[in-house]
Amino acid sequence: MKYLVIISTLFVIGSIFGWCLELLFRRFVSQKKWMNPGFLTGPYLPIYGSGVVVLYGISNVPLGITNHAADIIVRILIIGVGMTVIEFIAGLIFIKGMGIKLWDYSDRKGNIMGIICPIFSLAWLAVGSLYYFFLNPVLVNGINWISENLIYTYFVGIVIGMIVVDFAYSLHLGLKIKELKEASSIRYEELKNIVRKKMKELRETK
Prior knowledge:
mainly alpha
């Protein structure tokens, strides 16, 4: 039960804060405008939630390395690889399964299928290092406190329930749009434009 509470809490924290991070990144760095950075309707990105769970596990599971410095280096390298693998798997799921591109690194050197690239893998490595040295100690204490005060897990359960319902709705909508638009791969921005157009047409026919 305790481990389920820990994983669920980490997933929710990562999903919400990841959404906020992507929102600011797209507003001030990439697209230069406010936009929902995720596939879901609500303010959460499950890929970041999964990433935080992985970060927490890698940072705290014993590796059997006696040298402290070597242990830290190996953990950070594993974090960088692990986050890149998560990004690649998530990209494949959306592109192959639904024909949707949530992000595109095709213009980056050394990219693989436009899903991952060296510069963003280094970015994940940097983020993982910051997490390990600064956030992990705080999360460990916070998660231990929450696991001992189970009343707060109800809020975590509510958010997870919202994510599940939102994911089912968004998945259904995405598959319907894919059926309407015969294309092997479309960007997420194009998907949202199609949704807006369809909703406008429905309102005008009423």
